[in-house]
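Minutes, project check-in

Agenda point 3 was the complex the collaborators sent over. CS summarized: two entities, 865 residues total, and the question is how they sit relative to each other. Sequences were read into the notes so everyone works from the same version.
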Amino acid sequence: MSNASTAVHGDHHPVDPNVPLEYHEEENSLRIIGFWLFLGQDMILFSSLFATYIVMHGRVAGGPTSQQLFDVTGFTIETIALLFSSFTCGLATYEMRRGHRNAVIGWILVTLALGLVFLGFEVSEFIHDVGLGATLQRSGFLSAFYILVGTHGSHVTVGVLWVMLLIFQLLRRGITPVTARKVFLWSIYWHFLDAVWIFIFTVVYLTGKVI
Amino acid sequence: MHGVVNWAVHFFMLDEGPLIWLSDFLIICASLGIVGVLTKFRLWKWLWDEWLTTVDHKKIGIMYMIAAILMLFRGGTDGLLMRAQLAWPNMHFLSADHYDQIFTTHGTIMILFMAMPAIIGFFNVAVPLQIGCRDVAFPYLNAISFWLFFFAAMLFNLSFVVGGSPDGGWTSYPPYVENQFDPGPGENYYLVALSISGIGTIATGINFLVTILRMRAPGMTFMRMPMFTWSVFVTSVIILFAFPVLTVALGLLLIDRDFGSHFFTVDGGGAPMQYVNLFWFWGHPEVYIVILPIFGLMSEVISTFSHKRIFGYSAMVVSMVAIAILSFVTWVHHFFTMGAGPGVNSFFGVSTMAIAIPTGVKVFNWIFTMHKGRLEFKSAMLWSLGVIPNFLIGGLTGVMLAVPPADYQYHNSYFLIAHFHYTLIGGTVFGVFSGLYYWWPKMFGVLLNEKLGRWHFWTFMIGFNICFFPQFFLGFMGMTRRMYTYPAGYGWGVVNLISTIGAFLMGVGFIIFVYNVLWSARYGERDTTGDPWDGRTLEWATTSPAPHYNFAIIPTVKGRDAWWLMKQSGEPINGPKDVPFRPIHMPNNSGRPFIMSVFFFLMGAGFVFQWWILAIIGFVGVLICMAQRSFEYDDSHYIPVEEIEKTEAAAGRL
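CS then shared the predicted structure for the full assembly.
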């Protein structure tokens, strides 16, 4: 950061060593707040999908019900993979704060692998269900199921693609306030998807297996 | 060959009659005219460098306003066509199909492509200047918001001449708009265009929240912010909570239409009312999104032209927050007739009526602001004053509609039409004109003509009342909305004729406004001071138009009405003499927001016509643009001190 005024985003404040690297520049700190607000609106988006799913749950139109369809082993493995990936993602942030670039990349790669395991099981679950005739077009319940779970899955896919770009940037530039901010934003996105999955696990899969 | 010709004739709607041919002709003439002028005067580079790639909030604001005025013309033309059709019983000027399409595009364009960009345009024009900062928090994202809106509006307008307009009303209720009953691209246009512009709107909401939260000038605490900035803050919160719900409603309906799912169909376990709930969970807050910023700018205008500080500042803030909260618990009043039962209907009736309380507080505060003030009846003031009685009529009839048993009588009648036009025109459109007259010098450095402004106000205001007041009675007489013609003998003919005359008078008012803009551009008084109204807030502290960086030195705020206080104490805007200028950090221009929005447009067209290859090309293009942005590290520059000194010297501020 040069001595010149960072005037677009207010005046330059001296760096507090206790503040994490990603907050060091005013502009980065603005982007982090903006991203939290983005996650806020994403939460509303998922809430609307959840509300719609709950309304549609019983509307099976003579087709398969959630009790018949959901496979306990499959969604348990998905859940474990995603929850663990949130933990490894946290380790990546921890290493980032300690300035260990290669450890950051390593934990990101582990997170990425767990994310791909999750996606693999989700896709195979969908293919399996469709093979049984449980398609998006079959009933209101299945439309709501595929779109709610699929929206989460496509979010995870975006997270996977996004972090691949970040690995290149980390390799080229190391840990700077800017790359640290990028990794941090990706990590809160990833944790957010984990939180959404906990609701899907509870509201869709567990509840759907019982009623 | 014959088959291709037939397809093309149908696709471009050449078999639909003279209205389409005329539109085609006008579109071709206008496009050729624009291309011709740009080429003849060698303006292509200027257009790209200065406008299409800009990330400057002031220029983006101007583009929003221009787009909003163009869309007001398009939506207004739709309105006049409808009024011409309804002027007398048994008219067949428009066919039922065309009438359906026109009332749909009228409503959609007026709300989403006229009111929204006008409001967001004012966000851009005023907020960064009012809070004393140099741009919004995310200037690049701001450009994306604008271009997404722009290309969504283009896509939507294209429907008139390519493939057919949507015809399910601006609310687009299923099951009627499902493929089974309403095939063709029309409704897809609606769903796709609104989704794309909705993404831009959410981004705007986030952008202005962060801007206001984090970028206020030193000393500007929350309770010292100008009232307009407060209203933008509250509105941005509403946007953040409401728009994702619209995205979901539209997205699910589009999936129904494009991929055959059963969210809102009548068969296959669909739940059409779920759409209606989702739609109005966005839709009711939406009407506050387009009115709260108007309340904010009215507070500025009335305070400025009364030469008094706003009366009851804290009450104004609290009432806006109260309106924002209440706006999320009233949505069911749009469909009391669904039959949710007395308990539910009573709750939503009461919550709706409760909104009248904070709104009443605001009206009284405006009146008390004027009390014992030194009133100056400039055009901006006239428009703001016009809001008070007209919006009051809209508000009071809204309370009438909020009584569930009575609503069964008024529901979907012309009484409702008159009610919401009194709020949306008598509130939003009047307010937009007020804001245009008020901030025009700040946007363009030129004052609009006051005499023409008064003519504009009185013709439009009188025309508006002649047009819509009789419609309350048409509602009582049993005329329902969306009917394309009616038989003689109900006594509706004369009343409708009066209403139509009023509508055309509003058209005359609009023409006077356009003439005023053109006249003032050439002969209008130049604003050399930057403060033509003896203003109170910081946007009047800088030149008109403001320099690229807004303020050479960020002002320190000592209280409410910061600029007024500075003028009182004789303090210059650039602070004491010995404060040196420093280089100013500004974001670079970028063509990517424009290009990315073109890809969004292509993807949207793919979803409209189910041309999946086009949709994939558009989608991949969007992803590539986003990835490129991720690798962009060098996206800002410094304005050197010499340049700032030169600009400031030219403005007489050294």
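Noted in discussion: Chain B has two domains: 1-42, 43-590+635-650.
Follow-up: revisit at the next meeting once the mutant set is ready.
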